[in-house]
Each structure stands twice: as C-alpha cells, then as structure tokens.
Amino acid sequence: MTQRREEHWSTDDDALDWHDRITKDAIRAITRRRNSLGLSAQDVADETGNLGYEVPRNVIANWESGRRKTITIPELIVVAEALDIAPVELLFSPALGGWIDYLPELSHDRWSALTHFTGEARHSLGMYRLRLYRKHAQIWQELQEEHHAAFQLEFQLFQEEWPPSSQEKHDAFVAAIRERLQPVRAQLREIGMEVPYLAPSLGFLDAELPPLKTDPDLEDE
Questions:
Q1: Rounded distance between C-alpha atoms, residue 82 and residue 56, angstroms
Q2: Residue 40 pLDDT > 70
Q3: Which of 118, 112, 144 is nearest to 131 (CA)?
Q4: For residue 108, which of 7, 113, 184, 189 is within the disulfide window of CB 3.0 to 4.6 Å?
C-alpha cells in the first residue's frame, strides 16, 4: 500500500529530513533485534569484528542514543549479519509496523516498502531480470533435491569411481536441466545477463545457450 506522505498521519519524526528519518528507522530495527537476542552493543561489535569489519561498540551506542545519525552500507550489511537478519529487514522492518517514507514524499506500509526495494512489487525490465534470477534459483534448488544422487556426483573427481547406475542418474539430471532450467537461462542470455554458475561438469550446457549480448559502447572503453 502506497500513499503520499501528507495523506497519512504525522509522526514525531516529521521535522527530520528524509535521510535522517529512514536512518533512524533502521537503527530502531537494529536496537529491537539486538534486544530480542539478548545481546549487548559490545557483543554485536565483537561479532562484526569476527566477520572482518568491526563496527565499534561506541558507534552502536551512538546510533541508539541518537548522537550518530548516519549508517553506511558496509555497516548495515555487517551488523545485519552479526544479528542474523537480512539487511533489508533492518531497512524496512515489518516488525516495527506502521508506515515508512520510502521516498521523501512517498510512504509505504513496511512490507510494501520491503518488496518494493527487493524488486518484488514492481513491473519493469529491471524487476523482470530479478524475477528470472529468482525463478532460476527456485528451479535449480528443486532439481538438486529431486536429483540429489546425481548432483552429488559433482564431488566425485573421477567418473570411473561413480557407483553403478550413476551415468543413468546423471543423464536424467541433465535432461531435467535442459527441460526446466535451460529456458530460463536462455531468457537471461537474451536480455544480456550472465547466467548463474552451475557446476564444472555441467559447463557444456552453456554452449547450448544464445550468445551473451554485450554493450558495444562498453567494449570500446
């Protein structure tokens, strides 16, 4: 659900600039998640350090006290990982309820804002690309589960070590990929997108796809 900001009720944050409001909202989500996990600011700082990009305890404390009003993309990503939550759920946390200003003059309920951000709620070429990648991931996961034994052959270095009947299972796996996954991979190629990696033993399937379209202007750079 979407509406212009002036059409919905005012809040205590109305006097803040949009970038301050949306940052404050993400910090509220960080605080809520941290408290729900029973973690201190130092616990979160320590875990971000373990992840290779430390966000110091005083930075986290300053966010939550309002003394620091900015949060960088790297900080958001690593703090989300430390809190075992998706970064987008900190940006547009449905758990907080109510509305959020997705743009300075355009408000969404939080779930609509989240799906708008992830490309699930709009119809354009860009969102079409995302839908194709999601469809590809879903089909690939299904094929791995349905043909688990054949997929595991990828980890056998030498084909002569395959168990009996493995070739038949592998052939059925390849046939299923051609039938169900290759059409999506072909669509991605046709709109100039790289196809997701499958596995070395399945690389021959890429030769069956249309050639990757490239931008001639980029080739000249």
A1: 13
A2: yes
A3: 118
A4: 113
Q: What is the pLDDT of residues 103-145, one digit of tens each?
A: 888 888 888 888 888 877 765 556 788 889 999 999 999 999 9
Q: Where does residue 45 rank: exposed (0-12), middle (13-18), buried (19+ CB within 10 A)?
A: buried
4 phi/psi in degrees, rounded to 5: -65, 145
3-state class (DSSP) for residue 107: strand
> How far, in Å, are 98, 113, 214 from residue 21 at the CA level?
14, 14, 40
Model confidence at 214: pLDDT above 70: no
Residue 109, token pair as written in the block: 């309920």
Residue 174: phi and psi, rounded to 5, are: -65, -40
d(CA 39, CA 48): 13
Residue with the bigger pLDDT between 185 and 118: it is 185
d(CA 95, CA 127): 25
Q: What is the pLDDT of residues 142-161, one digit of tens each?
A: 999 999 999 988 887 777 78
Q: How big is the CA angle at 186 (ends 183 and 189), to the nearest 5 degrees?
A: 155
Q: List the 99-103 sheet strands across, edge first.
A: 2-4, 106-109, 99-103
